[in-house]
Amino acid sequence: MQLQTSSATDIGKLRENNEDSFLEFNVDSSNEKLLLLVVADGMGGHQAGEVASKTVVNSIEDYFKSQDNNLEKNALDSLKNSIVIANQNVIQASTDKEELRGMGSTCTAMLIFNNKTFLAHVGDSRAYLVRDKEITQLTKDHTLAEKMLDSGIISKEEAKTSPHRNMLIKAVGITDEIEVETYEPFTANQGDVFLLCSDGLTEYIDEEEICSILNIYDPDEACKSLVNIANKRGGKDNITVQITKVVDSEVKDQNNFLDNLNNNSPFKAN
């Protein structure tokens, strides 16, 4: 399987520092092909948010560099466990230094391993899939607005502009016990395009626009275009995007993944 991947992060127009971090970890050898992507959006003010997001991506990278297990059998558990360890490391760092108290981060992590795609998620950074020129949001925001939407208190349109849309109810580094959302693995098809991003992008660009850009441009140009649009429309937050296109795949997905996703059946909380 051949993948084209590009990542970009930008401080935006109003922030003094970039609290977003990302990881692009690629292993391509005769024994295994693995691509690990992570977007983390830190919070905590001053330098704390930046420390939190960097701790998350560094912890996950270290975990996978030290892995000697068979990922074919344990890939999803490994992805989840790496975030659990990142949570512990963020809490420890905030305990050690008073100026870092209360810091936290989102984390959206995707592992593509031997044609299979694995996904784990905490917070409101997002993962999307464009397949057959149609876009699907793979993750679910862990925000108060999303919870209100699920409860029927507000509509989908109201959730987009709700003052609660950025109020996280889950984040890495906030509590000792963390609930990491995981998703049933699915096959990556030729032509699939994956997007991981922080909310500095989705605050300004809707799904239809994202889909159009991902269908038109290669990953490098799409990253530049998305960041530029978000900045032109305000850029009040940091902006991070990771785009991966499957340009060669030996396997064709036969499991009606998107139909199942729309019915919420692949979504499970661990």
Can you walk through the features of this model?
It is a single chain. The chain has 270 residues and is α+β, with helices and mostly antiparallel strands. It has one domain: PPM-type phosphatase domain (Phosphatase 2c, domain 1), CATH 3.60.40.10. The protein has eight helices and twelve strands. The strands form two sheets. Strands 2, 3, 4, 5, 6, 9 and 12 form a seven-stranded antiparallel β-sheet that branches. A hairpin with a 4-residue loop joins strand 2 and strand 3. Helix 1 runs antiparallel to helix 2 and helix 6 packs antiparallel against helix 7. The chain is globular and about 50 Å long. The two termini are 29 Å apart.
Number of strands: 12
CATH superfamily label: PPM-type phosphatase domain
Radius of gyration: 18 Å
Instruction: Return the CATH architecture.
Output: 4-Layer Sandwich
What's the number of domains?
1
Our estimate of the beta-strand percent is: 25-35%
| Number of DSSP helical runs | 8
Helix content: 25-40%
CATH class: Alpha Beta
| Biggest sheet details | 7 strands, antiparallel
Descriptive tags:
alpha+beta; 270 residues; globular; disordered C terminus; seven-stranded antiparallel sheet
